[in-house]
Automatic annotation (TrEMBL):
<feature type="domain" description="DUF3291">
    <location>
        <begin position="6"/>
        <end position="142"/>
    </location>
</feature>
<protein>
    <submittedName>
        <fullName>DUF3291 domain-containing protein</fullName>
    </submittedName>
</protein>
<dbReference type="Pfam" id="PF11695">
    <property type="entry name" value="DUF3291"/>
</dbReference>
<dbReference type="InterPro" id="IPR011008">
    <property type="entry name" value="Dimeric_a/b-barrel"/>
</dbReference>
<dbReference type="InterPro" id="IPR021708">
    <property type="entry name" value="DUF3291"/>
</dbReference>
Length: 154
């Protein structure tokens, strides 16, 4: 059994107010995409039930969507994100989300069996924004292998 898994957090702010209709296609796709992720090889866990939508944390107060997932490996996450049906929606993200001026996705290694919190993900994202990619907070563009001392670091 693997001693580590890959955690991932990404955030985005909707272009249009939540519930206004312009992002309805995106919102409608959440359940089908999440059904695919739930069956994806190497998928371990995802944040659900926040904001009344089983898929991602959607905060209607400020139109922020948060996605927090855990994968068995970097390769498994890459395969789902960039090579599966999810890819079409990824390519269309500019239709639904405002452009990001700073990092909006962060990856980090966790001990197998650990379930990360949104707060942990936020802290990793801030770490990435402040210091750039490190073994504690990185991106697909610059990845690191798991290091036992990093696995326990919040």
């Amino acid at each position: 059994m693997a001693q580590h898994h890959l955690a991932q957090l990404n955030i985005g702010r909707l272009r249009y107010p939540f519930g206004s209709g312009e992002a309805d296609e995106f919102i409608a796709a959440l359940d089908p995409i999440n059904a695919l992720v739930d069956q994806a090889p190497g998928f371990v866990w995802r944040l659900t039930g926040v904001g009344g939508k089983d898929s991602a944390a959607i905060d209607p107060a400020d139109d922020v969507v948060v996605n927090l997932t855990v994968w068995e490996s970097r390769e498994a996450m890459w395969e789902f994100t960039y090579r599966a049906e999810h890819r079409e929606f990824l390519h269309r993200r500019r239709e639904w989300f405002l452009p990001q001026t700073e990092a909006s996705t962060v990856l980090w290694w966790i001990p197998a069996g650990h379930i990360p919190t949104s707060l942990e993900g936020r802290d990793r994202l801030y770490r990435l924004r402040e210091s750039g990619p490190t073994p504690a907070a990185f991106t697909f563009g610059q990845t690191y292998e798991p290091v036992e001392t990093q696995l326990a670091a919040p």
